[in-house]
Amino acid sequence: MNGKVALEEHWAVNETLHIPGQPVAAGAFWDETRRLLVDFHDRRLAAMDAHGIEFAILGLNSPALQAVLDPVEAAELARRTNDTLADEIAHNPRRFAGFAGLSMQDPEEAAKELTRCVTELGFKGAMVNCFTQRRVPDSAVYYDLSEFRPFWATVAALDVPFYLHPRLTIPSRESPTTGIAGSTVRSGISAAKPRPRRSD
Q: Where are the beta strands (DSSP E) in 101-182?
């Protein structure tokens, strides 16, 4: 089927692929994945054409900005990556649009950057990983805290989608029952209620 629109199409720059303190995946598969993430034209467009994708909305890789511990550095990297994405989209607006990457370490700064990306760069909304680290490696800040209420008011005022993307838990908090986004998972066997025995 042709004419498809893809919403979860990741892209990256070298800085978001090599965040200090984050594990770096190794092997031929991940080497190839990295090459694909930084490509905007040749192989990406060829793959889109081969699979009937007419239009792709691009968002940063995971965990990217949400793994930068320093809020100021995260905000600066967010601006640079969003400017890079806007420039790439300008070369081929018929095939690409963008989701803003945001430094959720500072909700006020994230609101300002989202406003800039939507009103000045023409982005369609934001794609953010589901928790952010801030200042110390062993941290996981979620966005239901009261400090994020002004940010959500900005999202509502702009009337754009906010794509909450999963990410792997940080290594210091891994356990056998921890999965994507640090959520606790249970097997269907252990979580199931015992069935009542039949009397016959």
A: 125-129, 132-134, 136-141, 162-165
Q: Is residue 180 part of a domain?
A: no
Residue 198 in tokens: 């039949």
What is the reported pLDDT for 2?
A: 85
Distance CA 11, CA 34 (A): 9
Please give the tally of structural domains in the chain: 1
Condensed to tens digits (0 to 9), the pLDDT of residues 127-177 reads: 999 999 999 999 999 999 999 999 999 999 999 999 999 998 876 676 665
In total, the chain counts a number of residues equal to 200
CA–CA gap between residue 7 and residue 97 (Å, rounded): 10
What is the DSSP pairing of strand 96-100 with strand 53-60?
Answer: parallel
Return d(Cα 143, Cα 151) in angstroms, integer: 9
Assign residue 29 the CATH number of its domain.
3.20.20.140
Whose tokens are 């097997």? That residue is 187
* Other beta carbons within 10 Å of 58: 24
